[in-house]
Amino acid sequence: MLQQMCKDFAETELKPVAAQLDREHRFPAEQIKKMGELGLLSITVSEEYGGAGQNMLALAVAVEELAKACGGTGTIVSVHNCLYVGLLDRCGNPEQKEKFLRPFTSGTLGCFALSEPDAGSDVGNMSCVAVQDGDHWVLNGTKSWVTSGLEGKCAVVFATVDKSLKHRGITGFIIPIPTEGLSLGKKEEKMGIRSSSTCNLILEDVRVPKENILGTVGGGFKMAMAQLDRARVGIAAQALGIAQAALEVAIDYAGQRKAFGKPINQLQAVKMRLADMAIRLESARLLVWRAAACCDEDRRTTKESSMAKLAASEAATFVAHNAIQILGGMGYVTDMPAERHYRDARITEIYAGVTDVQKLLIGDLIIKEYS
């Protein structure tokens, strides 16, 4: 039922405007509002706070259908669900949930600000600092690559209370937008997922009341890493949607385009390419669904989530690349969506943990598991 609702919404509300949103780098404000009304911005949030109370598998299925129509919209929905409302629902106290979760379940977006210009994969190198001043904490620094930063009305911002403590000093702070001292950087001009905005958050003497600390002082790193396990499932689902869209474009074109007196889908080389594309996609989907199910077991799922994210993101790039090869020149022009799918797919190997880091994590965990 959820999957069909998302499929219908994507076909009628997203697919017809996806190319235009991409060309104009335009945020899908009207569609986000409608998705909020449908409960798609709080899929896993408990019903007590206005959410749908669904599981991570439901979220993965929903994100895939939405991303199939528009990769950028898939990003917005995935990040908001996994890294803002999902985080508040899991780690916030009742007062924080009432103030910063409930209003964000039906159309208002929140943000997740962990990365910095010099602290991406190396989060322990964080330079955004928080200094206690009575009943407040004063934050200074710059957070980068913040999805929906231009539209979001609140952000979970991570800062260190003591640089010498590295990971153990990182703490999460809930900061409404706008807040005095908090400014937004320029909108990044991106290769793909252009309907989602990305910008820096610049903090200059931002005062945050102590009751806005999410979790515990110094507990931010573990909290963020645990939530990123879930976020990687969301990004993996987005990658599946992009890959599915690219595969369907290739299959449709191969059935219509004729060469040597017959449709090119009758050529052995094209058949073999389509087979490889479908196998990579469907194999990745099984890993994503497995990781989503593991997330609902209320345990750390770093291995399963990293495997899913790695497989799905590489599948998306592989499928999108081969779709362009099947379309030939038509795959390279904007008249067809294949080139957009390729551009959208590329980011899935980068954000929420680059491919190289996923392999290192998986390798470490496999060695530990079998030792």
Q: What attributes does this structure have?
A:
Butyryl-CoA Dehydrogenase, subunit A, domain 3, 11 helices, four-stranded mixed sheet, Butyryl-Coa Dehydrogenase, subunit A, domain 1, Butyryl-CoA Dehydrogenase, subunit A, domain 2, globular, four-stranded antiparallel sheet, 371 residues, single chain, alpha+beta
What does this structure look like?
The chain has helices spanning 2-14, 18-24, 29-37, 56-69, 71-91, 94-101, 220-256, 268-295, 302-327, 338-346, 355-370; strands at 111-113, 129-133, 136-147, 154-160, 170-176, 182-184, 198-209, 213-214, 258-259, 262-263. With 371 residues, it is an alpha+beta fold. It folds into 3 domains: 2-104, Orthogonal Bundle (Butyryl-Coa Dehydrogenase, subunit A, domain 1), CATH 1.10.540; 111-218, Butyryl-CoA Dehydrogenase, subunit A, domain 2; 221-366, Butyryl-CoA Dehydrogenase, subunit A, domain 3 (Up-down Bundle). The strands form 3 sheets. Strands 1-4-5-8 form a 4-stranded mixed beta sheet, covered by helices on one side. Strand 9 and strand 10 form a beta hairpin.
Task: Give the mean pLDDT.
Answer: 97
Strand content: 5-15%
**CATH-derived architecture of the largest domain:** Up-down Bundle
Unreliable runs? none
- Shape, principal axes of CA atoms: globular
**What structural class do the secondary elements suggest?**
alpha+beta
The count of strands amounts to 10
